[in-house]
Amino acid sequence: MNINRNHIIILLILIGAIFIICAASAEGVSAAKTSKKTVKIYNFKPGVLWAPKAVKLKNGDAIAGYVEYSGNMQFNRGTGVTTWYVGNGMNGDIEPHHTKLIKVKFFFKNSKGKIKTKTVRGHSAHISTKLIKGYAPYKAIVWYQTR
Question: pTM for the complete prediction?
Answer without folding.
Answer: 0.74
